[in-house]
Amino acid sequence: MLSPPARDLVVVGAGIVGASVAYHAARAGATVTLVDAGRPGAGVTADSFAWVGSFGVLKGPAAGLRATATAEYHRLEAELPGLPVTWSGSLSWNSQDGAPDAGPGQTILDAATVATLEPALRQPPEWAVWTPGDGAVDPVGVTERLVAGARAHGARVHLDTPVTAVRRDTAGRVIGVETTSGTVSGATVVLAAGVATAALGAPLGVRVPVQPSPCPLFRLRAPAGLVRTVVNTEDFDLRQVAADRLIAAADSPERTLAAVRSTFHGAGSVELLSTRLGVRPMPADGEPIIGPVTEVPGLYVAVMHSAVTLAAAVGRLVARELVDGTVESALAGCRPDRF
């Protein structure tokens, strides 16, 4: 057992991870209060490229979580009809000599087959990794749907309410949080506040080694149907999000725009609409930090990179640990006490 089951939770952070924890815990019968300084998904969640898949992730503590990401989102779709998920598959390639080995659920395609999937490509690559089970989500839309689902199961939601401190009793056990609007009580507090998690833990003597990592995201106007899958190359991650809109995750807006125009037929009219620079939480070793904080009874941390990819799985597993008191082996390599 991790600790006695918690039936009274305060979740700090209504990004996609906090919203998922709140939804799954409320669905499991817990009394849940979700608190956020802004609106659901309005922080770094909104700046995510939001690719749901496992390409390139073959080892590490979270490899198992990532391997289940698509299945967990299919489960969530069944629970929350209308969840904004698109299962387009993904194509990945680079300029190195020779194709890599295909991983689970993947196929190596030749140029002719790649051209059938992305017919607008000017020069289809000699090979590409095709992962038909991959997809992408509207990250803010998914977060809003999770919050609505939590509310439907009885959760209280306090938005535009910054949390200023975690409260403890004289024995050092968590009893809730202090906000700009007053006190919110709870026997367990889940910190799912992205880069702000470290600052909330520090006054408690808790070190959460997570640093802000810039994540540029570009929105482009483009012809309808220019890109049909999630495309991953050395130049960009790219996908179509509306009839005349693309989003790209890359380093430079100018280089990205030039690369898109040179990669696809009919892309001469593609133009940059906006640039956003999100601040994703990057743990010191790149792996999720998920679990109870031993030195502060009642405190639980859930902060990670690839939050959108992992949110459906992590929300379910964290809820099981907190509400049922079980120990989830899939989270074993992600514990805060590894630092």
UniProtKB/TrEMBL annotation:
Domain FAD dependent oxidoreductase: 8-320
Gene Ontology CC: cytoplasm
Pfam families reported in the protein's UniProt record: DAO
Keywords annotated in UniProt: Oxidoreductase
Record has Oxidoreductase as a keyword: yes
GO molecular function: oxidoreductase activity
InterPro entries noted in UniProt: FAD-dep_OxRdtase (IPR006076), FAD/NAD-bd_sf (IPR036188)
Protein name: FAD dependent oxidoreductase domain-containing protein
Organism: Wenjunlia vitaminophila
